[in-house]
Design goal:
mainly beta; Neuraminidase; four-stranded antiparallel β-sheet; 7 helices; about 10% helix; disordered N terminus; 6-blade_b-propeller_TolB-like; Protein yellow-like; secreted; MRJP/yellow-related
Length: about 400
């Protein structure tokens, strides 16, 4: 009994030592900054706004804006691409970006209303050149009577002017039968903004698509490591058990190496293993011998049971890879200078209530870690309690997050 008491005391000491993230935003249900109350009433009446179905999943920070995505899971999503003001109230309404007009698209639309229209977004990325990169799936009512309004596309906005700089529609050769692009990460240096590459993970078609801004072209990369692991497709979040076959979901980029290229860290969501490959291979894939290139993808290691992850983000300051832990209600990390073992992948932030299904995380340009939790399994397989807080966003400096852990 005494030995058990010592273990409990040590465990509590470890928890108390950990820095606690700051709660920045929280909502029971999200709403929008409608131009007038009459607009909101009309949207509710005609079904273009069903408040319960507006479910945030992704985020990214730029200066005083925190972008928040609301994909069209179900009918009645008023705006898919939005932001809030960092210095505003914790439960402030979402502001459609770049405008309400560009986001308020009927679920039964048969074509893109305009080139700047936003249909359905899961993930976004802010680059060092003050641009917002948006992966628009083009798909409405994903969980209902799915309507592919337009093909998947990349939208690039100038954050200083809020203008759409470019929109690129992916080619048929970029896609497979079950393709679903949910994530985007951008490889670019602030001194050569025109030479940007975006990496899009296809969780349903098990591949990665590379887009070159300079060439305005894209190509698909295939590998066995992009597939899910059959033994790790089972989840248990807040007592809700479900099974997913999501393949490569998250891609995170290191700082540039000596040769100028970065290391791309990636993993399937339904997996506990982490892999890596040089961005040199991804950028030049069409010119390479595919048999030889196959061996340039490397297994880093295994995190251990129950460590499936929906998103990751790399901090260049600490050289630490942060990633969500959906089955363990929190965030874990790995110092890229250490071997990839379960011992070197500690759970640094966790709480079964506050971090129930941590869906997305991002490290911003000031080395702050942002986290969004949203109770997704309840939304998909059960029911959200609209009288309880369902969506939370936290932040913490990356140094504080890893203090006293093996990631330090």
């Amino acid at each position: 009994m005494r030995a058990l008491s010592v273990i409990v005391v040590l465990a509590l000491a470890s928890v108390c030592k950990a820095a606690l993230p700051q709660l920045r935003f929280a909502w029971k249900q999200v709403d929008y900054a409608w131009e007038t109350p009459a607009d909101r009433d009309k949207a509710i009446k005609d079904g273009t706004f069903v408040q319960y179905n507006n479910f945030p999943v992704g985020l990214a920070r730029w200066k005083n804006k925190l972008f928040i995505t609301v994909p069209r899971w179900k009918n009645g999503v008023a705006s898919s691409l939005n932001y809030v003001d960092l210095d505003g109230p914790t439960d402030q309404p979402l502001k459609p970006y770049p405008s309400f007009k560009d986001n308020l698209v009927p679920d039964n639309a048969k074509m893109l209303p305009s080139n700047s229209s936003v249909i359905s977004v899961f993930r976004v990325h802010v680059d060092p050149c003050d641009r917002l990169w948006v992966m628009d799936t083009g798909l409405a009512e994903i969980a209902g009577s799915a309507n592919q309004i337009v093909g998947p596309s990349i939208m690039i906005f100038d954050l200083n002017t809020d203008q759409l700089l470019h929109r690129y529609f992916l080619k048929l050769s970029d896609m497979k039968e079950d393709t679903f692009f949910a994530n985007i990460v951008v490889d670019v240096d602030k001194d050569t903004c025109d030479n940007a590459f975006a990496y899009l993970s296809d969780l349903g078609g098990y591949g990665v698509v590379v887009y070159s801004l300079k060439q305005d072209d894209s190509w698909r990369v295939s590998h066995h490591y992009f597939f899910f692991e059959p033994l790790f497709g089972s989840y248990n979040v807040a007592g809700i058990k479900f099974h997913w076959t999501d393949g490569v979901f998250s891609v995170a980029l290191s700082e540039p190496r000596e040769n100028g290229y970065r290391t791309a860290f990636f993993h399937a969501m339904s997996s506990t293993k982490e892999f890596c490959v040089s961005t040199e291979l991804l950028r030049n894939y069409t010119k390479l011998d595919k048999t030889e290139a196959f061996h340039d993808f490397k297994l880093l290691g295994d995190r251990g049971d129950n460590t499936q992850s929906s998103a990751s983000s790399y901090d260049e300051k600490t050289k630490v890879l942060f990633y969500t832990q959906v089955n363990r209600d929190g965030v874990a990390c790995w110092n890229s200078n250490k071997p990839y073992t379960p011992e070197n992948n500690p759970l640094v932030i966790t709480d079964p209530k506050l971090f129930e299904f941590t869906n997305d995380i991002k490290v911003d340009n000031e080395n702050n870690l942002w986290m969004l939790s949203d109770k997704m399994p309840r939304f998909i397989y059960s029911e959200l309690d609209v009288n309880d807080i369902n969506f939370r966003i936290f932040s913490i400096s990356t140094s504080e997050a890893i203090a006293g852990t093996t990631c330090q």
